[in-house]
């Protein structure tokens, strides 16, 4: 991970763990993201009835025992997201944050919604689209808040991510610092703890008791990585792990047909926390496999495309291709489609969207300056008059989808 400087703590005190040489890219996070995505893919293809037309344990009697816990890949995503979002916003403005997130998540999502809707509309044997109003609403990524069905089942996680972005945007708007991140973790944890017994729907929606511990722990892990491990940060991580494990039985029940053991899911979550602790403390910095960067870039489009399109393909070919071969070949095809999505949609469309949004942001800044506020003081005064939306360049920061790398020219 590369920084021009290590930054400052609150009060202007120089951050602990200053260093003169750039830190290596966190390729391990790229690999972990792809592994989490493949866990979810395996769960959907081999542990759900899906397109098979019968219980998955009849099709994969041995494999299903393992892959039925693949949904925990979502929890791993949230854990990584807390780390990456905190990393990518350090030293940046609210405008930077909004533009980078919009350019990252929307281009591939728009295409995935239309592709999935088209497939299930033409072949509605597995899933169907009620009407095209649902599809249009899904393009906003806000359908859950409006009580509209997701075009694809995996989209529910995106709404959870959006809520995290909105909450953390409060920190970004005031300037991201060590103290504010810790305060954010503490307040969100308190809200998540009281939400289940408070019976206040609005609080429960934003507190996200089942998932907030992963985001919070990810933030604490990044603070360890940027500064140094402390008892305070380990305490946040430890409490978050305990709260996360408290929600595991409910998550198992929600994702299993019948009663299944909960300990495998618990073990996976614990291992994910251990792995993130090793990453945060530099134990895996020596892993510099460049191909992991490409692998990590496939994660988001793979996640968006695989479920209902894949299940529809399984339905059409289940009687003609052996199950194991079908799943393996389909996974490879989806990885190929994810690569095409990344190269042909995410990169070019993301770049154009970034350019358009930055122009709009500049226009807003220019027209928001009070008359005469910058008179006689030059362009610098105009920029400084809007501290929350100007674009500081104090740090050479990475984009969330380029974990640990310097900011790319196309902003993807």
Order of helices and strands: HHHHHHHHHHHHHHHH
Radius of gyration: 22 Å
The strand count comes to: 0
By DSSP (H or I, 4+ residues per run), the number of helices equals 16
Low-confidence runs: 1-9, 11-20, 381-412
Strand content: under 5%
Helix content bin: 55-70%
Judging from the principal axes of the Cα atoms, what is the shape?
globular
Distance between the termini: 17 Å
Structural class: mainly alpha
Summarize the main sheet.
none
Nearest-integer average pLDDT: 87
Describe what you observe in this structure.
By secondary structure, the chain is mainly α. It is 65% helix and 0% strand. It contains 16 helices and no strands. Helix 5 runs antiparallel to helix 7 and helix 5 runs parallel beside helix 14. The radius of gyration is 22 Å and the shape is globular. The two termini are 17 Å apart.
Supply the key terms:
412 residues, mainly alpha, 65% helix, globular
SSE map:
Blueprint: H1 27-46, H2 56-59, H3 64-67, H4 72-89, H5 94-122, H6 132-138, H7 156-174, H8 178-198, H9 201-207, H10 212-226, H11 231-255, H12 263-280, H13 291-297, H14 299-317, H15 323-368, H16 378-384
Helix pairs in contact: 1-4, 1-13, 1-14, 4-7, 4-10, 4-12, 5-7, 5-14, 5-15, 8-9, 8-10, 8-11, 10-11, 10-12, 11-12, 14-15
What is this entry, summarized?
With 412 residues, this protein is mainly α. 65% of the residues lie in helices and 0% in strands.
